[in-house]
Design goal:
- There is one protein chain.
- This protein is mainly beta and 243 residues long.
- The chain has two domains: 45 residues, no CATH class; 169 residues.
- The protein has one helix and 24 strands.
């Protein structure tokens, strides 16, 4: 019987690595984690999208642009915007809108927008299924007194009830910014946004994902890093109030 040799695990690992690795300049890299610019410069993927390259720096085109080797911020948006989740590696989340319901923001197939309009007061009630916000910290609504959105101490995006100014103590209520053709950013946090499997049922629908500000360098189990892209909403106010 011919002898049976055990293939060393380390050699097998090297062969597997070499079959999937690429070379950028003189550096081996994993093309699922990095992109090679101009055959010389490596930039990482973040939330499923590769960073672009500009004169020695990696940057997100959702926030910056590069002109003649000079990096500059995209135009800041202050007008109302709709929100869309972006992470091309997560088909259950990528491209789904962010929606306001039950004083939380959710996304994914099972998310929904929850609204109310007093038909005895308002002759023609706006009844959009789109959630529209002002990037600073308010919702685009008609109800007197308006509604605000915030990041609560757990990191969850929430919003105030109509006719109430209550926001949980310790919540972040400012420091948010949106960029034209780009994304919503929390300027007071370096960690970005995550979508987490909901620990509760979305009313009448089922489990979905809730949107959070990531609070530390590690993404918690059941959560996934995402970008929140901004886009133009429908004309006019979306709703009377969100519930």
């Amino acid at each position: 019987m011919a002898p049976i040799f055990s293939f060393p695990a380390v050699i097998l690992a090297l062969l597997i690595t070499s079959s999937t690795a690429s070379v950028c300049g003189t550096t081996d890299y994993d093309p699922s984690k990095y992109v090679c610019w101009y055959s010389s410069f490596l930039c990482p993927y973040t939330n499923g999208s590769p960073l672009s390259y500009c004169n020695g720096a990696c940057y997100s085109p959702h926030m910056y642009h590069c002109t003649d080797g000079v990096l500059a911020l995209n135009t800041i948006i202050t007008s109302p915007v709709s929100l869309t989740i972006s992470n091309p590696t997560l088909p259950d989340l990528d491209g789904y809108p962010v929606r306001a319901c039950s004083q939380k923001f959710s996304t994914g197939y099972y998310s929904q927008t929850c609204t109310y309009c007093p038909k005895d007061v308002v002759r023609s009630c706006p009844n959009s299924t789109t959630t529209v916000i002002f990037p600073s910290n308010s919702l685009d609504v008609l109800v007197p007194g308006g509604q605000r959105w915030y990041v609560d101490p757990s990191g969850a995006l929430g919003f105030t009830q109509a006719h109430s100014a209550y926001i949980p103590p310790g919540s972040q209520v400012d420091g948010f910014q949106a960029y034209e053709g780009g994304m919503l950013v929390n300027l007071r946090s370096p960690w970005g946004w995550v979508a987490c499997l909901a620990g509760r049922e979305i009313p009448g629908v089922g489990s979905g994902y809730e949107v959070f500000q990531q609070l530390g360098p590690e993404v918690k189990e059941g959560c996934f890093g995402v970008d929140i892209l901004v886009g133009p909403p429908e004309a006019g106010f979306a709703v009377w109030e969100y519930t």
